[in-house]
Specification:
alpha/beta, Rossmann fold, four-stranded parallel beta sheet, 2 domains, 11 strands
């Protein structure tokens, strides 16, 4: 995910791969993954950061690890595979990003700039308060329920989040669900976040949300501009607003 934002205007394939079983093991999957990656890296129609694993070509910033021990460990729950390597290599050309014009910037990333708060029943507002008071914090990612809902009746938590937004912290709402997206105005328990200025992450993965927020902060964007850009696709990491259901 981070590479897709850092490599601005990518005009060539960048294929990331690995293996579940080490290369020197008898049942390694590394050889197939590497060979497929090399073939795809030479393909003229690919001009973005991808993950190649178990015969699947996935958009890098749409991929996530879904299994810890299986060979088909990676998937992209909210975007079809970009391609598949079977007997023949097939690409879904309508999904591939068009080549850009490379424009690399030297960016400085502050590890303390972004933190993550997973919501759970009974969460205390003091936990969020301590996170928001951390030195250097500029962005906070919520891991909420379903389509972006929060525990009902926890006004103290809402007050902490509202205060953070007012102080310039960009609070972004992601779902704990693997697939779907955040549509926080669907229910009352989510619409309260919209009222206090929390930004929905659309259908981005948690990894892409984290990387994108860090990237925009490192670019020096204002909190207002970051809030406007987070739900919009910069590198194909989320659906455009007119595609969201």
């Amino acid at each position: 995910s981070a590479l897709s934002f850092i490599l601005q205007g990518c005009d060539k394939p960048v294929i990331v791969t690995g293996s579940q079983v080490p290369l020197n093991a008898v049942r390694t999957d590394a050889i197939n993954n590497l060979v497929n990656s090399l073939l795809l890296a030479a393909h003229p129609d690919i001009s973005e950061v991808c993950v190649c694993f178990h015969g699947r070509l996935l958009r890098g910033n749409r991929s996530t690890k879904v299994k810890s021990t299986a060979f088909d460990a990676f998937d992209s729950p909210d975007l079809p595979w970009l391609g598949e390597a079977g007997v023949h290599i097939h690409l879904s050309e309508g999904l591939l990003l068009h080549p850009g014009e490379p424009h690399l910037r030297e960016l400085s990333f502050d590890p303390a700039a972004v933190s993550v708060l997973a919501l759970y029943p009974g969460i205390q507002a003091d936990i969020a308060r301590r996170l928001c008071a951390a030195e250097g914090l500029k962005g906070l990612i919520l891991r909420s329920y379903g389509v972006g809902n929060v525990p009902q009746g926890n006004q103290a938590l809402m007050d902490v989040l509202a205060a953070a937004v007012n102080e310039g912290v960009v609070v972004v709402n992601t779902s704990q669900c693997l697939a779907g997206g955040v549509y926080q105005d669907t229910y009352a328990s989510g619409s309260v976040l919209s009222r206090i200025g929390v930004t929905p992450a659309s259908d981005m993965t948690a990894e892409a949300t984290f990387a994108k927020l860090h990237y925009l902060i490192a670019c020096g964007e204002s909190p207002e501009q970051i809030r406007a850009l987070m739900p919009l696709p910069l590198r194909g990491e989320c659906s455009s607003p007119d595609q969201q259901v």
